[in-house]
Design goal:
The chain is an alpha+beta fold and about 290 residues long. It contains 6 helices and 15 strands. The longest helix has 19 residues. The two termini are about 20 Å apart. It binds zinc ion (ZN). Zinc ion binds next to loops.
C-alpha cells in the first residue's frame, strides 16, 4: 500500500483554473463535491458524519475567506473545499485519524485541502503592503489589490532521516510523544542549502554525530500545515550520541530493538503506511 498522502489522484487543471467562468462551471456541475473543515479537522454534522457534500448544497453555508476553493478533478468530478465559520458545525476526529481511516485517494484530497485552507487562513492581507487580496485560479493564487503582488501557496521542504551505522541506527524522541515512541530525526531546509547539506546539518545539530553519506529514499506531502518531507537514510560515524535540547532523548538501537518497538504497543501510534518516518525505519530493517 502506498504511503499516506502520496497516491495523489487529482488533476490540478492548471491550464483551465485561471478561467473564472470554467471554475464556475465546475461549481455548478451536479457531480461537484466539497469537503468542509472546522479549523484543521474535517467538519461533521449533527450525526457525526464528515461534511463531504454536493458543492451546490454548500454555497449558502458561512465560510471563512476565500470561501470554496477548487482542489482539482478526480475522475471528472470537481472537488472543492472550504473552512466553515466557527460554531457552524462540529469538529470530526483529529485530522490524522480522518486521514488514516480514509481511502488513499481521499486522504490526498483532504491533505491538499488542509494545506491550501491553512495557507488562506494565514494570508489575510498582502505581506508586502498590507492591502486586501483577491483569490484567483480557484484559490491557488492571491493577488494584492494595492501593489499587485501575486502570492502562491507555500510548501516547506523538510529533511527527515534515519542515521545508521552498520547494524545500529539512532532514533530520538520528543517529550510530547507517547511513552516509548522513538522515531527519525527531522528539520526544515534552510535557504541556500541542498537536501544533503540540510541532512548533515540537522543530524549534527540534533545528535552531534558527523554524517558520511546521504541516500534519498522517498518523499511525502505532510499537511501539518504544508511540509514536503524528504526521506533519507544517512550513514554516521559510530560514537557517543548527545541529544539536542529539542529532544528528550536520542540513542542507538539495534535492528532487534527497533523491531520490538514497532511490533509492540508503539505500533498503534505509528501505522505502517502513515508516515515516512516508519517507511525509512522499515526500509533499513528490510535491508539487513
Ligand atoms: Zn500588496
Amino acid at each position: 500500500m502506498a504511503l499516506t498522502f502520496t497516491d495523489f489522484p487529482l488533476d490540478h487543471a492548471g491550464l483551465k483554473r485561471s478561467d473564472p467562468d470554467w471554475i464556475d462551471e465546475q461549481l455548478h456541475d451536479p457531480k461537484a463535491r466539497a469537503v468542509l473543515f472546522a479549523g484543521g479537522d474535517l467538519a461533521c454534522d449533527e450525526r457525526g458524519q464528515d461534511m463531504i457534500l454536493p458543492a451546490r448544497r454548500t454555497r449558502m453555508l458561512p465560510m471563512k475567506p476565500p470561501g470554496l476553493i477548487f482542489l482539482g478533478l478526480l475522475n471528472e468530478t470537481p472537488w472543492f473545499a472550504g473552512t466553515l465559520e466557527d460554531g457552524v458545525a462540529g469538529k470530526g476526529p483529529d485530522f490524522r485519524i480522518s486521514a488514516i481511516n480514509a481511502e488513499p485517494d481521499m486522504a490526498c484530497v483532504y491533505a491538499r485541502a488542509r494545506s491550501l485552507l491553512a495557507w488562506h487562513g494565514r494570508r489575510k492581507c498582502c505581506s508586502n503592503c498590507a492591502s486586501a487580496m483577491k483569490a484567483l485560479d480557484g484559490g491557488t493564487r492571491l493577488t494584492c489589490s494595492g501593489c499587485g503582488m501575486d502570492h502562491f501557496p507555500r510548501v516547506d521542504p523538510s529533511v527527515i532521516m534515519l542515521p545508521v551505522a552498520g547494524d545500529r541506527c539512532v532514533m530520538g524522541r520528543q517529550a510530547s510523544w507517547p511513552d516509548g515512541l522513538y522515531a527519525t530525526l527531522a528539520g526544515f531546509i534552510e535557504p541556500g542549502e541542498t537536501i544533503e547539506q540540510a541532512c548533515r546539518r540537522e543530524t549534527e545539530e540534533e545528535i552531534h554525530r558527523p554524517v558520511t553519506r546521504v541516500e534519498y529514499v522517498a518523499s511525502q506531502p505532510w499537511p501539518f500545515p504544508s511540509s514536503l518531507m524528504i526521506g533519507l537514510l544517512c550513514e554516521i560515524e559510530p560514537g557517543e550520541v548527545i541529544p539536542d535540547d529539542d529532544l528528550e532523548d536520542a540513542r542507538w538501537f539495534t535492528r532487534d530493538e527497533v523491531r520490538a518497538i514497532y511490533e509492540g504497543e508503539v505500533a498503534r501510534w505509528a501505522p505502517a503506511n502513515f508516515s515516512i518516518s516508519r517507511l525509512l525505519i522499515d526500509r533499513w530493517l528490510d535491508a539487513e
